[in-house]
Amino acid sequence: MTITLEDVRAAAARIAGHLPRTPTVEAPRLGDMAGCRLHVKLENLHATSSFKERGALNKLLSLGEAERRAGVIAMSAGNHAQAVACHATRLGIRSTIVMPAFTPFTKVERTENLGATVELHGETLSEAAAFAHDLAARDGLTFVHPYDDPLVAAGQGTAALELLEDVPDLDVLVIPIGGGGLIAGMATAAKALRPDLEIVGVQCSLYPAVRQALAGQPITCGGATVAEGIAVKAPGALTLPIIRALVGEVVEVGEARLEEAVYRLATVQKQVAEGAGAAALAAVLEQPERYRDRKVGIVLSGGNIDSRIMAQVLMRGLVYEGRIVRLRIGITDAPGALARVTRLLGEAGANIVEVHHQRLFHNVPVKMAEVDVVLETRNQTHVETLIARMKDAGYPTSLMVEVG
Q: Any idea where the ACT domain is (predicted)?
């Protein structure tokens, strides 16, 4: 079983009027970082902040009256759960979402608020999926798979129709891969319309299941990732052959690059992206020489990032850019020494965030002390100027956190 351009066009016609079109915007500042002309498809602007609404809605709209009366069921701990719950409720279809027992309460509550009945079951995603299939068989419910369903994949492919209408002369299209529904649908449409278009898939390095499967390697996945939306341990039976036939290459990106991409999208493009949603930008930043001077389209596939994770990413980004640093400064252990240090730092334009005065736990002479100072600075050049100024004033100073 596979999907065709006609399936994607039928999905577009089916969901038209139910789902607002998301914009494709040019991102010149992000493009400058990679030396390319970059265009971003903003799938984070859907009501539930994810592309998953396209496939879920296409599937739900295809159901017959008897199937609608019986209801639907899905297994998901993330964006697919919200997409199914949102549109099933809107269409008057009863929905049940099975989530693993470890699912954070905020995700459970959000899904219930969208109108679904949530069943918590199992310690793993596979146990939750098996339970969902059992419930579907027992109660006559239609199972809505997150990616391995031709109607779902065709629905996701409608994003490519819109993107190529907005930017018809793309040279390359970069798409995140989890189970493969998004890239299978988009590649089907894009390659049918533009056979010369290069398509690159992106996986996080901890979950490279599709890349390993394509290479005939054993699938080994695991670990904590900021891109949990694409942390899928097995590619789909439907999606893998499509990816093999249509996608030029599948690449991996590590955690540091994913964090950077989330940070850049927030601070440069002013768009909230989850780790999986930022994966395409991460791939472009990882290999800028590959995309240099080309017109590149990327999919920002989702924006459902935990606020605590976003806060950490933003603060770590400031450290990376040298805008928050920690300096260790040696001073004499005498009255007024600390005041002179803080005055020098203030005169140099640094804003002091924290001060830790150490006498006992560092290897320093008894008449000396060390001060660890956390500072807000302008950039890395400013940091270098601060260090030089402190040394010139007779205070040994070293940078405790590398920047850049």
A: 326-404
Sheet of 72-75: strand order equals 117-120, 95-99, 72-75, 142-143
**pLDDT at residue 362 is higher than 80:** no
Yes or no: domain 322-399 corresponds to CATH 3.30.70.260: yes
Query: If you average pLDDT over residues 274-278, what whole number do you get?
Result: 97
Distance CA 177, CA 252 (A): 10
pLDDT reported for residue 301: 97
Query: What pLDDT does 404 receive?
Result: 46
Q: Nearest CA to 363 among 339, 341, 330, 402? A: 330
pLDDT, tens digit, 9 for 90 and up, residues 8-60: 999 999 999 999 999 999 999 999 999 999 999 999 999 999 999 999 999 99
The phi, psi pair for 35, rounded to 5°, reads 70, 25
- The structure's pTM equals 0.90
Determine the pLDDT at residue 403. Answer: 45
Q: Are 72-140 and 322-399 in the same CATH fold?
A: no
pLDDT, tens only, 229-240: 999 998 899 999
* Radius of gyration, CA atoms only, the chain: 25
Match domain 5-51+155-316 to its CATH number in 1.10.150.240, 3.40.50.450, 3.40.50.1100, 2.40.10.10. Answer: 3.40.50.1100
Sequence length of the chain is: 404
